[in-house]
């Protein structure tokens, strides 16, 4: 995950509230008759080539680069405060 600003390409209102979506794999054995889980391993993280990001305002999901590129197209600048003494 890159340390760059995000901007939702869908709603174009959100720059701060996001979810990182990760996939996991869970190995298990089930009883063929009852369907009960007999044995279960700890979940393991599935490595993604590029993280999936979800906007928490409009729920749009896409790859991280879409959010980064949208922020680069419409950058937000910090206001520099100057004092007049």
What does the model show?
Strand 6 and strand 7 (61-63) form a beta hairpin. The relative contact order is 0.31. This protein has one helix spanning 64-73; strands at 18-21, 23-25, 28-30, 37-40, 44-46, 52-55, 61-63. With 85 residues, the protein is of the alpha+beta class. The N and C termini lie far apart (43 Å). The protein has a domain at 18-73. The protein has one helix and seven strands; from the N terminus they run βββββββα. The mean pLDDT is 91. It has a three-stranded antiparallel sheet with strand order 1-6-7. Strands 2-5 form a two-stranded antiparallel ribbon. A two-stranded antiparallel sheet has the order 3-4. This is DNA alkylation repair protein.
Percent of residues in helices comes to 10-25%
Largest sheet: 3 strands, antiparallel
Output mean pLDDT.
91
Alpha carbon gyration radius: 21 Å
First-last Cα distance = 43 Å
Spatial order of the strands forming the largest sheet: 1-6-7
Number of strands: 7
Quaternary structure annotation: single chain
In short:
The chain starts with 17 loop residues before the first strand and ends in a 12-residue tail after the last helix.
Show the helix and strand layout.
Layout: E1 18-21, E2 23-25, E3 28-30, E4 37-40, E5 44-46, E6 52-55, E7 61-63, H1 64-73
Organism: Chengkuizengella marina
Protein name: DNA alkylation repair protein
């Amino acid at each position: 995950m890159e340390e760059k600003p995000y901007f939702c390409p869908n709603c174009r209102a959100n720059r701060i509230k996001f979810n990182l979506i990760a996939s996991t794999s869970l190995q298990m054995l089930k009883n063929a008759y009852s369907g009960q889980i007999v044995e279960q391993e700890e979940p393991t993280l599935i490595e993604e080539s590029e993280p999936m990001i979800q906007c928490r305002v409009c729920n749009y999901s896409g790859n991280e680069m879409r959010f980064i590129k949208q922020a680069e197209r419409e950058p937000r600048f910090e206001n520099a405060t100057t004092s007049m003494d």
